[in-house]
Amino acid sequence: MQVHTQLQMRFPRVEAWCKFRKPARHGDLMEVTIWIGRRTQKSLLFHFEMRREGDPELAAEGHYTVVCVNRKFQSVAVPRELIELFGEYLPSLSHRPEQASEGAAARGSSAE
To answer: What is the CATH number that goes with domain 3-101?
Structure first.
């Protein structure tokens, strides 16, 4: 499914990090494992590990964050269709720490 075409959305990377642990050379076949480590209302954090085919040792590991944007590059919520597509591989919705703190402050303390 071409999500970006059907939903008129884009998924730019806003952060990327990679740690190279072993060299990979031109022609090496690499096995890449990728999973979604966190999702917020408008973003997904993907983690990855790379190994040379048949080698259990890590060659590289990292993560990158994508944000869902419309055609005007305004951030929008992760579309329902994408959530359904990822299904069981998608973690529960996370909130940024400042949002969680604001919510707790708005509710007040129940430690009376």
So the answer is: 3.10.129.10
